[in-house]
Predict the structure.
Amino acid sequence: MKESKTDVLIIGAGVGGLCAAAKLITKGIKVIVAESLPYVGGRFSSRDCNGFQVTTGAIMVPYGETSIFNESFDDVGVKMRVREAKGGFQYKLQKGTYTVPDKGGLFGMINFALEDEEKAKEIANLFKHAMTWMMPSDAISFKEWLMQYTDNQDLHDLFQGYIGAFIGVNAYECPTAELFRFLRDGMTRFKFGVSIHGNADLMDSLAEGVTNKGVRLSTETYCKKIIVENYRAIGAIIEKNGVEETVYADHIISNVGPNMTVELSGEEHFERSYMTLLKERQSVTPVIHLAICAREPLHDFPGIICTGGTRRLVFMESPTMTCPELAPEGWHLSNTFSVPANTTGPLRLEETIEFVKQDILDFFPKFKEAEVLLQATHHREWPAMRRWPGFPMPTKTPVENLYNVGDGCMPRGFVGIEAAAMSSKDVVEDILIRG
């Protein structure tokens, strides 16, 4: 069997894996990345579908001086081909539409739903108290927390759409503190943009940046086993084109999710408290994605739209209003995301997709003149997120020198791409300290 040696072996070339590679290689650390898919990026990539660049999962691209994801591109001298998303945020209820201003958005949202300024001030002050004095615990759901102060259906519907769109579960499932952490930290850290030529172009450029710096990156390369001796990771067996290779490494970073990391390493190497934490709230968060093409935009708002009071629909955005390059000339692309009634299942996919289509028609009547380009369900091994909001796994594992990165161990209050990038920075800093 072929053998090799490296400082760090990274299993998986998703956002967490590639961001870790970018940060390590610029510190002079030898890195090998093994990716089982024929492309990099994982759920943050895109595929050409009849000339449309359709996402494999994630949509909003974090960027700007405070974004760790953006920082990873800077690390290897690669420009992010991203255009700032136009329009900001808009909220739709059956009774009307609210477009968020530059300032005072939270109060405005609440007042829009309640149509009672004094009551809106009271609720907004409760939000402020939660974020600046004492945050509620995760012992109850956000829906239960809000119900203490109002049963106004429009306000509950508005936050159902907001939580579904940004956190990926229903309001009755979202731990209370996780929403407040997200409002305080996750929505204020960076700007959002759209990848001009599709997410695959963005991740391909990051992969090119790391390989140009010296990273050995190989796709269609499968990790068959992480080698553990005396509770310490010493390497892994990988395979490409039927040829196995043992890669010995000082550190191993897994970007395939905490559950798969345990499976590859052997559960017997992980102590009981870690395994208990892993199995607690281990449900992934599923979403239903519809990509829609049309000659005319389904709406006239170029930003992100959250819908409330629907059967299932929570999110609509039309990236071609910012980046027309994502569709053939004269066409428009829209993406919708929806959460099932119960995100722990059963999903009832056919019923859910039919409800979604009815919701789209209710809010965006031009849908009847459009075509569904793609229907995708992100769940099981290809989820919206690998861990339940508010219950991430730590980046370190009980196996010495073995780490996880990605949305299975994202910092509380953060989601998606930026959270995965943040997990990689945390791991790299620990590796640099340990030497």
Observations:
- The chain has two domains: 2-45+55-79+197-281+387-434, 82-193+286-382.
